[in-house]
Structure to design on (290 residues):
């Protein structure tokens, strides 16, 4: 009688272990005696895992695409700086030195920077220059598109086709951009900036005019005059913040943000994402506050 009781306890214990292990995915599971859905008894589990894998793959693909885009944009900027500055030496070419510093701040590999400088000295390499396009979106939104291209006709045709296909409207030069300011934008990721320490560092660096914007789950943004962007970025790094967490870009920042209906927001984002996939497009700025 005693042996039977012990055997029953052992058997039930084994069933409990199999239940738990099956639920955690350690062992192949069988229908649960405890009423807890296991891997085999819950078809949603497999579906969830499949969706999660797809989301991870899509996110990784987008991240890799953004990195490649950043590297390509800075490659073109470096070529432009070498050609316009007349030298491949950062000590003799201030424009090149500034671009190289920005490239490093945006985690562009040193090898990519060196290749771009070398390519710029090749007589067969085209001349890159900047150009902007202005667009009316949906719900009162506007877009400013910055391109860096060696072929005006191609860039113009691609941008217009992309916008028109999604029912946006190309705007006349100057009809949108007057509502934006050109700013140096320093993003500080994962670090809360101390206001007093930042003010002291900024004054020490010679930056007396800047604005700080903080949003939940987003990098802190410090906006200043484009001519003082590198100085401000160096000031922030002097506060002991890791160089990899500080990124500097030049952007058009809206003076009058507007909130658009959700449906219009989605339409505008569709245009923006399609534009950002174009090789000649550097960045797309907008005035949406959503």
């Amino acid at each position: 009688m005693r042996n039977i009781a012990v055997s029953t306890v052992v058997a039930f214990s084994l069933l409990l272990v199999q239940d738990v292990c099956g639920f955690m995915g350690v062992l192949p599971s069988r229908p649960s005696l405890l009423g807890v859905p296991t891997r085999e008894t819950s078809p949603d589990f497999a579906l969830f895992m499949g969706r999660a894998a797809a989301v991870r793959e899509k996110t990784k693909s987008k991240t890799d695409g953004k990195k490649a885009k950043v590297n390509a944009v800075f490659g073109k900027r470096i070529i432009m700086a070498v050609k316009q500055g007349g030298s491949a030496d950062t000590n003799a070419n201030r424009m090149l030195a500034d671009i190289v510093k920005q490239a490093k701040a945006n985690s562009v590999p040193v090898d990519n920077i060196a290749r771009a400088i070398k390519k710029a000295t090749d007589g067969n390499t085209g001349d890159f220059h900047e150009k902007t396009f202005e667009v009316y979106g949906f719900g009162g939104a506007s877009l400013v598109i910055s391109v860096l291209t060696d072929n005006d006709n191609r860039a113009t045709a691609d941008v217009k086709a992309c916008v028109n296909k999604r029912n946006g409207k190309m705007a006349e030069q100057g009809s949108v951009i007057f509502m934006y300011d050109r700013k140096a934008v320093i993003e500080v990721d994962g670090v809360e900036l101390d206001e007093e320490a930042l003010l002291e560092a900024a004054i020490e660096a010679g930056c007396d005019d800047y604005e700080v914007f903080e949003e939940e789950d987003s990098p802190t943004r410090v906006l200043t005059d484009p001519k003082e962007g590198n100085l401000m970025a160096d000031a922030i790094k002097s506060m002991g913040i890791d160089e990899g967490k500080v990124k500097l870009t030049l952007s058009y920042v809206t003076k009058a943000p507007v909130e658009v209906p959700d449906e219009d927001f989605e339409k505008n984002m569709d245009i923006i994402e399609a534009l950002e996939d174009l090789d000649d497009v550097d960045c797309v700025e907008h005035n949406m506050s959503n």
In short: Residues 113 and 197 are 33 Å apart (CA to CA). The beta strands are 129-136, 142-149, 169-170, 180-188, 210-213, 220-224, 246-254, 281-286.
